[in-house]
């Protein structure tokens, strides 16, 4: 069975990326292709996207898309079949994808992503002359109004699926925007777009979807509780028969230490001694002491969700045990400042780079000994999957996808050769201290540490199994719609 899939998302690797969402959206089309799924991905026409697309082919034109002119362009970029919403007033601006250079959200984000969703619904309804999808798959709040526009419009019969990458980001706006959304009056209500007296983009998508997926099985269960449901647990529990937890995969061609062109030295599980060249390069990059102490790395948004405030309070302990720390990320200003202060305080032991650097993230995975991910909640997480692939032992909180992908180095797992990392709970300073103690102890036992690295590198977190599950879900939804 051949399936035509429209994917709608606000970012896609390798064109534009702020986090794991882009990696998933960019990798899934190729993984789905062997299962007979032909994917076209609708994304905003940010400057970086248009630069890679070139001229493109204009397939549709809008003279009044929420008050602005726009076009839908088509093209191929690095094997991805793209539909690009070229709306200069919405997307061609300096700053980030969702906010300005100072980090403030764009005040018209509701209009920008309502426009993206409206165009997605139009494509589902057949606005393109030569192609109409059999099913629509949208990602996170920025695309979640697509199912709502489909439900109340000409594409009501096309199956629609919403994937939650992080329930904490919901796209909530004031009720005053409802008249401008171009929805019928019946869309205002608990069964529509209304959410606690305002508008909820993600809520509108979840209530309008034929299926809801999360990016790990454990997270699918966690969001059913008031603690992790972020105000949507009631809705989710009411639709639990439509809820599926499908673990994210990774692009094993981009993330392959045997062929990675971004590394000083490539290596495989059977040649892990070659990792030492990457370790030395990482030490030189950050001016770290060249001793045998384990190098811990953090590659993350610096936020409360990621538990990085806990890490700030643990740095002195880590250094006191002989460890070193390298941090790459950006986020909350107080946390950025705290890590920079630690680097000043512990010269030669702590290195920090604020921002994001894709090549550097590869070097850190290949040269670091252990990656720290003390998240308070984590829908899936990709950095621990990259780490496993690169022999960088994950140290993770027992939540969401972290719990689903890392096998704790308890005595039984070590004896069986199955251990791949350190898993701790709860996400608090005492447990994190204990996890770091365990890393230092295990790192000092070379045969055990080597076995953990190799077990992690053997684990299969490619898209194979997950893509097959998505393809089967698409086929089922299409059959139900007939």
Note down, in words, how this protein is organized:
With 482 residues, this protein is of the alpha/beta class. It has 2 domains: 3-249 and 463-481, Rossmann fold, CATH 3.40.50.2000; 269-458, Glycogen Phosphorylase B (Rossmann fold, 3-Layer(aba) Sandwich). 38% of the residues lie in helices and 19% in strands. A 9-stranded mixed beta sheet has the order 3-4-5-2-1-6-7-11-12, with helices on both faces. A 6-stranded parallel beta sheet has the order 15-14-13-16-17-18, with helices on both faces. A 3-stranded antiparallel beta sheet has the order 8-10-9. Strand 1, helix 1 (20-32) and strand 2 form a beta-alpha-beta unit. Helix 15 packs across helix 19. The longest helix has 18 residues, at 464-481. The protein is globular, with a radius of gyration of 23 Å. The model has no long low-confidence stretch (mean pLDDT 96).
